Amino acid sequence: MQNKAIGIFDSGIGGLTVAHALKEKLPCESIIYFGDTKHLPYGEKSDKAIEDFSVIISKFLLEKECKAIVIACNSASSVAFEKVKKLASNIPIFNVIQPVIDEIAKNCVNCKIGVIGTKATIRSEIYKNKILEKSPQCSVTSLSTPLLAPMIEEGFINEEISKTIIHNYLSNSKLHGIEKLILACTHYPLIKDEIKQFYNNKIDIIDSAKIVSESISSELGNRNLLNSSFEPDYEFYVSNFTKSFENSAKFFFQEELSLKEVNI
């Protein structure tokens, strides 16, 4: 079982930030990545649609005999985690939300925390509810930022258009006075530097990729599922292929890769 791949999925290519962090943390592990590019963005879809897409993709990863599944999408993590966990009850299922909540609980006392993410993630209020369960002394304010993910998908990073959109969102009064900002979308690490610039490096910016990879490493180790000797292999699948999307995926993964289209 140790030599089986870790399956990772997202609505598009944002989850490749998690895949890259996992590759850095666990260089011996094989990875099978699926980006549901036919149906992106999940943040604009109904909860039922997100659940259905997540179940179909998880079945694909189970057919590939993955030893674990990572839901590398905040929207899917917020509404489909329990469904996927029930479907794949014999292997560990990870989401990108709980490790961040656990990290906040360990390190925050009386903090004012901001959360930005897709409409689906913010609508679920999962970050607010889970943070307050563990750290009731904190305050949490959330803001939907639906233009950020498609902006990043189109490659608008460190440009005037990205600076303008980021400024308009982060200037919202809901976020005034925050001490920490959770980037509740796996696309957002790619604009982390621009967000830091907006705040003049004066607040703590929390992205999930590194935190999630640490959590996965720990849990797989506890379950004796880590691979220490097998030559790793990487497979990347999408539900709708374009060459421009493949080029963008290379930017997200920060290495060469080749996408294969699978109709699901």
Describe this structure in words.
There is one protein chain. The protein is α/β, with parallel strands linked by helices. It folds into 2 domains: 6-95 and 210-261, Rossmann fold, CATH 3.40.50.1860; 98-208, Rossmann fold, CATH 3.40.50. It contains 11 helices and 10 strands. The protein has helices spanning 16-25, 47-63, 74-87, 98-107, 119-124, 126-134, 148-153, 160-170, 192-198, 208-222, 243-253; strands at residues 6-10, 31-35, 68-71, 93-95, 112-117, 139-144, 180-184, 204-207, 234-238, 259-261. The protein has a 6-stranded parallel sheet with strand order 4-3-1-2-9-10, with helices on both faces. Strands 6-5-7-8 form a 4-stranded parallel sheet, sandwiched between helices. β9 (234-238), α11 (243-253) and β10 form a beta-alpha-beta unit. The two termini are 26 Å apart.
CATH class of the largest domain: Alpha Beta
- CATH architectural group of the largest domain: 3-Layer(aba) Sandwich
The third-level CATH topology of the largest domain is Rossmann fold
The total tally of domains equals 2
The gyration radius over C-alpha positions equals: 18 Å
Shape: globular
- Largest β sheet strand count, sense and barrel closure: 6 strands, parallel
**Topology as a string of helices (H) and strands (E):** EHEHEHEHEHHEHHEHEHEHE
Distance between the termini: 26 Å
